[in-house]
Structure formats: C-alpha cells, structure tokens
Amino acid sequence: MNRQIAIIGSSGGNLYNLGGKEPRKLLDEILVQMESAGLSCGALQFIAAGVSMDAAKETTPAALYSWSSSQGAPVIIAEGTLQQVNQAAERLDREIAEQIELGEIDGIIVMSADPEGSNRHAVEACAKYKLPVTGTGGTSMAMIQAKGVHVIAASGTTGTTNRTRAVTFVTSLSKHWRIPYRPVIGTAQVSSSSGSGGSASPWRRINIRGMMMASLPGFIGMALVLAVSKIPGLSALSEVFDLMIKALPVILAAIAAKQVSELDEVSIVAGIVAGILSVEGGIIGGIIGGIGAGIIVHYLFRKCVEWRFPATTVNIVAGGISGLIAGLIVYFLIAPIALSAGEGIRTLIETLVSWSPVMAGLIAGLLIWPAIIGGVYHAAILPIVLLEMETTSNSFLGAVDMVGLVMVSAGITLANMIAPRDKGEAAVAAPGFAMNMGFGTFVEAAYPFMFSSKLVFAGAIASAGLGGMLVGLFGVRGTAYVPSFVGPITSNNTFGFLISMLASLLCSFLITFFVNKMSVYRSTKGTIGM
C-alpha cells in the first residue's frame, strides 16, 4: 500500500537557522527519505519567510509551497508579503483538511506549524480522524498535542539538521506502520531556484547562531566526559576532557564550513583543516576559520571545475587548500584577538555575577521564560552558554536554563499529570514531563498550560526566579540538554545544583497543582449551582 503523507508547516523561528531558510533543500531531503520508505507526498503546505518567524512582520517577503502531482515536486503557488501568503495558506489548509476527511491522507509531517492559524483545519481533521503525526517545533507540537492529535513522535528543533529531521520523521512513520525503511545517506538533489530564503551566495548563509546550536552535541559530550571523570577509578578521563576542549574549535569550524558552503564532504574537510589551525583562537577562532574555509571552498571548487581539473584534484585543492588558507589567516592574524574576545565575554559574565550572585541568578531566572518565548534565548543566551562552557564544560546561564526552564516545565507537566483540569490534559502532559526529565529539553511542553492560565504562567516565572536565585546563592555552574539526574553530576556543585533543581520543580508543581484544583472546584461548584 502506497501511503500518502501531507507535509505542513513553515520555515519557523529556530528552524529558520537550521535549514528552514532554504525550503527546497529542506523539503527535498524529506522527499528523498520518504521515497526510500515507499511513502508518497499527497499534500504540501509550507510557508517560507524571508527571515526567522521570531523577527517576521506582516510585510516580510514570503512564499507558499504546495505539491504538484503532475510535476511530482514542490511548487510555489503564492508569493508576496507574509500576510498575503498566510491568507493563501489558510485556503490550502482547508483543502488539506478535506483530503484528510476523504481518506486521501494517511499521515502528517509537521514543522513549526501554526495550529491556531494557517494549519488549524488540518490539525483539527488530524485529531478527528486519529492520523499519525510526527514533527518538530517545540511550541507548535505542544499545542498540537494539546488538541488531542495522535502524535507518534515530537521534539524541539535545536541541534537538528534537515537530514536528521527527515530521517526521524520517516523512521517514526515507518515504525508506526511497520514498513521497511533504510535512510538515504546521500545529498538530496536540490534546484537552485529557491523560494524565500534561498541564495547562491555563501555570504548570505553565514549564521553564527545556527553554527553554535548545531555544535551543541559536542559541548554536551564534553560535559558528560567531565562528569564521568569524577567517578572513582575513572579520573584518567580528565585528560580526555582536556583534549575535547581543544577539539571544540575544530567542531565549530567543520560545521561553519559545511553550512556556509553548498558542498558536503569537501567543505567538511576544509573546515577541519581550518579548525585545527584555529585552535589557539578558541571557539570564536574556530567559527571564523570555518566561515573563511566555507567561503573559499565554495568559490575555489567552482573555479577548479571550470578549469577542468580532474575530480580528485578538485577535491584536494578545494578542500585542502581552502582550509589551509583560512586556517593560516586565523593562526597568524586572528587567533589572539578571537581568544581575547572569548575571554572578555566570559570575564564580563563572571564580573556581573560576582557583584551579587543571588540577584544575578534571580534576574536571569525571572527573564529566562520571556526570553525563550520572545525568541531571545536561541539568539543570545545559548551562544553565551557555549562560550562559558568552552573552558569548564558548564556555565552560570546553563544552570539557570536547567532549573528555570527544564525543571519548571517538568513541574508544570507533572502537576497536570497528577491533578489535571480535565482528563485529556494528563495525556498531553506525560510525554513533555518524560522528555524534560529524561533528556533535559522540550520545555515548550509547558506552553499549553502556561498560556491557558495567567496564574500558571506567573508561577512558572516565579519558580524560575527562585531556582535562579538558588543557583546564584550556591555558585552553581551547570548545563541543560542532559538527563535531569546527570545535570548535578556535570556541575561544579552537585548538592547546590540538586537543591536548585528540586526547588524549581516543586515550586512550579505546587502552584500548578493548586491552580488546577481551584479551577476544578469552581467548575464543579458552578455545575452544582445550576
């Protein structure tokens, strides 16, 4: 049976920096993986904005992609301002909802959708007919789950790539239907005629935030090595930790080169070569070296092909020489400046915290939820966390992240599992609680409960402030994005971090618990009065 899949969503906020601004590449990667599993695209509604949705306005240029069955490919059916494209998207949303009602769609892939707006009808149809849904986008997936949709796999976007997302989507659907699937480890062929966001120029693909977020697994791996090295008998791993610190610029350089260049393996080699020569400049030096390598390899590769060099020589010249040129520039000219810049940022953070650790923690905790809701977290806070982690594998803001976001979200979802306002909320809260506790991420799971109650929202901010204050009081340095039980081990103060985490979780749990109880009591009292 050839199952039909609908792909819905947008280029997103955080997603924009991790592939969303090149919609054809993003969509083609999904289609390649779907084809490998014998799945077909039955419908497509993808809004591609010219900037991140976190900064988009009604006048932002955008394009709407739909599916052309005759061409067997995505096509742009509307272009203009974001407001105009959203209006066209709403019409397409109704058409997809009708396809679902007619049984023409078997499953849904979601990326940074808008279940209250341009995707409302499709989401409601999914909930009604219990279609399997998989997708990314913390806020949107949490809202979709809250509507009773049969979500078989959901996650946030941080740290993902077009390929890892596509493989995850198709894997979850193939497992759901028990159909064979072997991921395609090649490059999706993409037309250069992109819609909004696409560009042939490597200069326009420079995105520091996206590079740092994509390198997050390397930083977390370093933190885990440090944690394990504290176990008696495993102290020798401290040397591994020292080695990994030196490798961070190489990781960032490889990621930067790959993202900036249109090439894959060749740009990775160039980035690694540049990264090795940029080690003395720290992670800022690595980013600069990688960007330089990506730009040079892009142009040098094309020139070598125009000059009709043999393919092997093209790779050697483009990959090796590009990396050497960029790396040597950093090594001799930029490394000392880049290292000083990184040290300056870390010193500034430490200075601000040292003036009044408790006050600094309180302010950071109170602002952490508004920051992530407003799109500031991924733009500013996470890069600073990684800069702090460069030398010690943990950070002040990383600890506030864990206690103020992860633990607060866990407390809110736990309260809605134990004492929900209605039975359906418990099922929505359970996956979010498990992901927060088990993986240290997907804090957006608390959004449906925070946005539906001002008291829960205020409780989340107050709980984060309490946790941040304790982080400052105990002088904790830690990180999120790790299992909750690992968090204290990776910190500089295991006991202090544990107390801070428990305090945030318990505070948000109790506030949400009593708010839910009051809500149930009032609704019951109103029913009896009638």
UniProtKB/TrEMBL annotation:
Read off the InterPro entries from this record: PTS_Sugar-Specific_Components (IPR050558)
* Segments traversing the membrane: 210-228, 268-301, 313-339, 359-387, 399-420, 426-443, 455-475, 495-515
Keywords from UniProt, A to Z, are: Coiled coil, Membrane, Sugar transport, Transmembrane, Transmembrane helix, Transport
Query: What Gene Ontology biological process does one annotation of this record name?
Result: trehalose transport
One example of the protein's molecular function in GO is: protein-phosphocysteine-trehalose phosphotransferase system transporter activity
Q: Locate the coiled-coil region(s) and give their ranges.
A: 75-102
Q: Which PANTHER family match?
A: PHOSPHOTRANSFERASE SYSTEM TRANSPORT PROTEIN, PTS SYSTEM ARBUTIN-, CELLOBIOSE-, AND SALICIN-SPECIFIC EIIBC COMPONENT-RELATED
Q: What is this protein called?
A: PTS sugar transporter
Q: What is the lineage of its organism?
A: Bacteria, Bacillati, Bacillota, Bacilli, Bacillales
